[in-house]
Amino acid sequence: MVLISFFVMHLLFAAAQDIDYCDVSAKSCDTLADKKLIFYDVNPPEGFNLRRDVYMRFAVMLAEAHKRGKRANYQLVLPPWYHLYHWKTTRDQKDWGSFFDLDSLKSYAPVLEMHEVMTKTPKLSIDRLYVLQNYEDAFEGGVFKEKWELSNSDCYYDGFWGYNNITVKEKICVRFQGKVSKLWELTTLHPSDTKIMFAHGEIPLHDTYGTKSYWDCRKSMKFNKNLVDMATKYVSENFKCNSEKCNTYLSIHWRRQDFLYGRKDLVPSVKGTVKQIDEALKKNKLKTEKIFIATDASDSEIKNLIKELKALMYEVFLYVPSRSELAIYGDGGVAIVEQIICARSLFFIGTHESTFSFRIQEEREILGFDSESTFNRFCPDSGACEKPSKWRVVQ
Ligand code: GFB
């Protein structure tokens, strides 16, 4: 009997020692022993802003469950930013706090940084890794049905964000289509699991795109204060504006790189771009000749664009980070500064189907700009082009 209780005590102690962590927002420390952790990752080539969208799907899933008093012990672990395909300067691991206000994220959803989980544990063992796969035909029989099934085909995941002390007890391949909250059904397959991971988190859809929950979550994604300060300083110095809504410059997001071949029928040439900027200013009677450009274009394309704009007497501005800013915040931080600058401008023109542009539009909605100044896009030179959908903020 004594021996058994000693054994049980030992097990309990070991569980409590398993991982300790502190919930920064709640200012309290707890153990992971009574928590269930949901990890997720995204298809490696996907960029930062698409990943932000995937975060929102999972954050809303957890926050909504908590709101209904369900699954109160589940926490979402934020996948570190690591080796992002579009980042050229440094692809080192970055946590979410480098880009966002973590307290604000935590005020909306029960989230933890990966390092909060890893600091106190020598190794992490995931109970079940569900590798999600698309169905070959999403519209089988002509209808889109929400469904999932265990799959016999091969599936693969070798991520873990640069950690080499994470292991998986069992990997399961799952064909999945439908809303993200349908993933709760998978968690019931092994009810005693406490560490559950989903790879290809981009496959499940939003539960509630564009609803109040969506916007509550979106609003909680405030940027890291240092990045906001960098943008504020730039706007003040270059555009003589000290508020979040400026009327002294127009901004564009000019997405190039893979869009130049992947979506070549959707993007304009340099001359076509200049023509559309000029038309937008005239048509909307905008009294500014200052143009801010956020872009991933090559140096030679940027040079051409600046030359053509200057020929029409426009003043052109780009955000060029200092070496130390680039070293500290990396390509991801610089891109956010550009997004904030675009978000505060008098008028914005984005790139069709770019989530980088979508996030700027959302920021402008939150700031309360007139939607006519926000939902504008570059059209191809052929001119064939519909206005972007207006995703209006819901209070
Ligand atoms: O953010 P993102 O998912 O937007 O990916 P899309 C594009 C990445 O390219 C950004 C860089 O996260 C940045 O790293 N980038 C793009 C920029 N535009 C700019 C810019 O104006 N300034 C700076 N500094 N960086 C999706 C990708 O991109 O497009 C997918 O997520 C795929 O992987 C698809 O490539 C076609 O939605 O535009």
Explain what you see.
The protein is α/β, with parallel strands linked by helices and about 400 residues long. The chain has two domains: about 35-215, Rossmann fold (3-Layer(aba) Sandwich), CATH 3.40.50.11340; about 225-375, Rossmann fold (3-Layer(aba) Sandwich). The chain contains twelve helices and 13 strands. A seven-stranded mixed beta sheet has the order 5-4-3-9-6-8-7. A four-stranded parallel beta sheet has the order 12-11-10-13, sandwiched between helices. Strand 4 (about 75-80), helix 3 (about 100-110) and strand 5 form a beta-alpha-beta unit. Helix 2 crosses helix 6 and helix 7 (about 225-240) crosses helix 11. Mean pLDDT is about 90; it is low at about 1-30. Guanosine-5'-diphosphate-beta-L-fucopyranose binds near residues 45, 334 and 338.
